[in-house]
Amino acid sequence: MKALVLQALHQPLSFVPDYPEPEQINNHRIVRLNYAAINRRDIWIQKGQYAHIRVPVILGSDGSGWLDDKPVIINPGFNWGNKESHQGENFSILGMPLNGTFAEQVSVPENNIYPLPNHLSLKEGAALPLAGVTAWRALFTRGRITPKDRVLITGIGGGVAHLVMKFALAVGAQVSVTSSKDEYLERALKQGCYSMANYKEKDWAGVLKSKVNSFDLIVDSAGGAAYTSLVKLLDFGGRLVSYGGTTGVIPALSPQIIFWKQLNLLGSTMGSPKDFEDMLDFVRKHEIVPEIGDTFPLSQGQTAFEQAELGGHRKIVLEI
Description:
Blueprint: E1 3-6, E2 14-16, E3 28-37, H1 40-46, E4 57-58, E5 62-67, E6 70-74, E7 77-78, E8 92-93, E9 105-109, E10 113-115, H2 122-126, H3 129-142, E11 150-153, H4 159-171, E12 174-179, H5 182-190, E13 195-198, H6 204-212, E14 215-220, H7 226-233, E15 234-242, H8 255-260, E16 264-267, H9 273-286, E17 292-297, H10 301-308, E18 315-319
Parallel strand pairs: 11-12, 11-14, 12-13, 14-15, 15-16, 17-18
Antiparallel strand pairs: 1-2, 1-4, 3-5, 3-9, 3-18, 5-6, 6-10, 7-8
Helix pairs in contact: 3-4, 3-9
């Protein structure tokens, strides 16, 4: 079968036209793939910025295709464990260490295969699973969003953040956003957001405070120095959910403001099977569609990676 293979770290992906097909194993089914979407995780693995990397490997956590002549998508989280509160020690994500979706076929546990929502095309469906379940758990399971909440979403240029925004707007919450690019902020306002701030500006937190005063819920993927400002923007009893840490360690975080305002600082990673199923039900009910950017043939996978690395909430998709 045709596959896109990471042969070694810090090397371009290799298009292999005759890679061995996956073997049938117990409780697994083989999905014939039409599309696969690129995530930041794939880029981090290629750069060696991920734990316990094994190469060579077929990357790719997101994919859509066919099983028994029916269109399907894949939940990329395996072996969550028996507690909804957190993943177990055997939890893993499709696309390393197990071969992923950048190929014509992929073998996955049967319980991880779901019907494609009727309102989505196969291409759109390929862009939903990883970002969708991450956004859902951060916003609903951990963040406990309500329609009355004033919500702030940081880094709206990211794919997960963009789905968090769509989910929060669908609930009816008042949504504000940050980004380093004005075009992303303006687009978010046109989609229904209440206010915005460019975090490259010196007083971005002051801009938000002047418009909203404080937030009930903040969903963040960056951490770093800005995190302290986010904590200050929370209302009493507010929740701050972190699902990423792209800007690194949080400096100068004072415990006084945390205990005095009785804040909830929460972590969130991917999601359980229940999170995935609840996310799909919500997506179907509100007919939410991930936004697709450029599409590349599998043979141009490295070019697609270079495009995806430039960022943006529109998913880069491989056509298989």
